[in-house]
Every structure is written in C-alpha cells, then in structure tokens.
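Table S2 (continued). Query chain:
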Amino acid sequence: MLKKSERTKLFIIEKTAPIFNKKGYAGLSLSDITKATKLTKGAIYCNFDNKESLVLEAYRYNIQKYIGPLIQAIAKESRALGKIHAVLDFYRNYYQLVKSIGGCPILNVGIDSKNNNSKLFLESKKVSKKLLKGLIKIIDQGIMDGDFKSTTVAETCAKAIYAQIEGGAFLAFLNEDDAYLEDSMSAIENYILPQIKKN
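Corresponding output:
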C-alpha cells in the first residue's frame, strides 16, 4: 500500500497529466495544477522539485496509461504476424482512446518540447525509439519464424510501419477524424504486409 505522501504525489500526477498533454509545457501554468488538484502551491512543490520534474512524471504516466495497453496486447501474441495485427487493432481505436486528453502523448510532447525543453524532448524521443525497436524485433522474429521473407530489411520495414502509424495519428487529430488512422492501418495491412509475408 502506498504511503500518504506517495498517494498525494500520484494524485497530483494523475490530475496534471491530461492538462499537460493538452496545453504542453509552456502552456501549463501553476494555477492549472492547483485548480485541478485543489492543492496549494506549497503542497505541489513539497512533492516536486519544480514544474519540469512534475511534467516529466506526468508524461511518463500518460505513456504508461495510454501506450501500456499496446505492449500488453503485443505480449499476448506468440507469432510475429499476430503481434503486428495487435498493433494495427490497437491503433484503429487509438483516436477514441486519447481524444479526451488532447491526442497522442508522444506526438504532442515531441512536437511541443523540441525547441523549448530538451529533457522532455529526449524523453519523448526515447519512447518513440523504444516503440520502433519493438517493431524491428517483431519483424526480425517473423523472419526467423518463416512468416516473413528472408529478404525483408526489418529496420526499413519497421520505420515504414511506424511512420504510417504516427502520420495517421497526426492527421486524425489535426482533422478530428479517426478515419485517417483506420485508413493508415488498412494501408499497412494491404500494402506493406503483403510485400514481406511469405506466400
């Protein structure tokens, strides 16, 4: 069971995370945090050294909450093709999953922090690279298992799939239309996968 101080810290993170995802680092004010948590400025800074340390934790919370289910879905599948389809199924529903918090945490923080917060930018980049490496690992597994052609270049294929996913997510939130993600997942299914699957 969490100690009272740990529960308070988690409460602040939970309340701050969706606001931070919508407003970004520069747009998030201390008054936003105190209003959401109904705690004083002193109580906030009693639990966090500064705003940057709080938003880093809020970002990690968003990743765990909204990207964590993807990792769990992949882990349920034993074959590479099943893992790829788990990824596609997850992102077909992604727009609805993160719509209420203002969009994809990786995209939002990556774009927002690139020129104004190096720590946040590096954290977002680290998450993005981890997802890409996961896709490369899945495709490598598919080659070894004989599901994918031996001529498949795992990194190139994984980058194409990941770019399609993030591009679809960006356009879906920009246009407030989840059809972009659905179309992007279908493009992976109908154009990229047939190129690497063994007949």
